[in-house]
Design a protein that fits this description.
With 194 residues, the chain is α/β, with parallel strands linked by helices. 29% of the residues lie in helices and 20% in strands. The protein has a three-stranded mixed sheet, covered by helices on one side. It is globular, with a radius of gyration of 16 Å.
Length: 194
Amino acid sequence: VADVINDVRTAVGASDVLVMDAGDIMQGSLLSNIQQGLPTIDYYKQIGYNVATFGNHEFDWGQSVLAKRASQAANDALLGSAFPFVAANITAKVDGSCAGWEKAVLVGEDPADTYTIEPYTIIDLATAEGNVQVGVIGVGSIETPYITIAEATDGLCFKDPATSIIHYYDEMKTAGADVMVVLSHNGWTDGGYG
């Protein structure tokens, strides 16, 4: 993967490339499974990923582990380049309701591992033609609460992806996004939008 990314960076210029992931990054390899995603996050930081969203498998080890991994990814002081996880459709359940848009907060065992899920990020891409503000909005899998253990998504809402994107669209434009990218972990057949 690193070779392909570096080949693209070499071919078009590193400043013209953003590297993103649409989820399920921590599950699948033996080393990542044994260490609950730790080496995958280190690997992504070394490659220089810019942003990721949550797949359903990010919740396999519960919110405490996910908080630790998301904090690890976002921490500049740790190995490699920091990157955020974003998800507009994963919000906090308030008084048993998913009607609001309160940001979800993942809490790890260590208070330093608390991670607030932001709906989007804006990346300043310095291209040869000038700077471009790239808004990246994430939408996690709406199936997550049904296909993972219940306590892994306790207190979280997984809203409709299209409604969530529309909810934040004007805010992203006001924040300076020149272009927008939807980073989605939803497939077409499960009601997702690409």
